[in-house]
Amino acid sequence: MIEYTSAPASVVIAIYGLVNAWKWERDRFLKVLASAALRALIFILPLLAYNYAIYGSPFSAGYNKVYAFPGMREGFYGIRTPDLNVASELLICLQHGILWLSPLLLFVPYALYKQWKLPGQNGIVITIITITLYYIAWNSGYIYWTGGSATGPRFLTPILPFLCLPLAILWSKANKYFQSILIFFFILSFFICLTSVSVTMTLGIEDKAYFVFDYLIPEFIEPGKYRISPVIRMLVPGINGKSHFDLLPLLIIFLVFGLYIFKRKRNFEKQYSGLIK
Description:
The chain is mainly α. It is 61% helix and 0% strand. It is globular.
């Protein structure tokens, strides 16, 4: 409700839903459409009431009242024309690139291609690509595109669950050899992300610093440098960050949930073995 940048992505999802629902019988379509509109109105009313109470208008975003960041008055609340150089920084460059935080994302283009080849998946692929390109476009055009003192491109975080969908299909269609490659990249991505939350997610690095190799990994590995970020302290109270063994409770939690997911996966494969081959 308060993350305004998610509104266009929500519209894309709504369009996808309407296109699919258009095939339904007329009465069912109208009921679902009216229900969705009513729920959206109920959802947005608190925001409109808040804006009216604070700013005097229900449609005031409040960002035009920001004075500490003068760049917000440029373009549309700080968002200008997308910049390809900034987009490359957000995706692949060592200083900020999301691929260095999650190398598993390298397989997303191929995964999208594999999903596109499946019957009935074209609309989902178009929706995923549109949402992904939207976030890259607005983030690359935003004057404060680095996200402040963020470790990596935090404004691109919303695209991650969408990109997991084609990766899941890629995994289900891969042979054992390719699955082993995907597992390796998953473990690598897991380690880098664990390193990030263990050290800090608000690194505040210099523009020319290679944040994964110059900061995160050395801080995590070298004796005396390892420290616990507030994220880990919140999840596992009582740890002090003096030893890597402090991560053991968190790893146990990951292991338990991982085994649960693996069990659900095996049960699903047994139940729908004829459909997923």
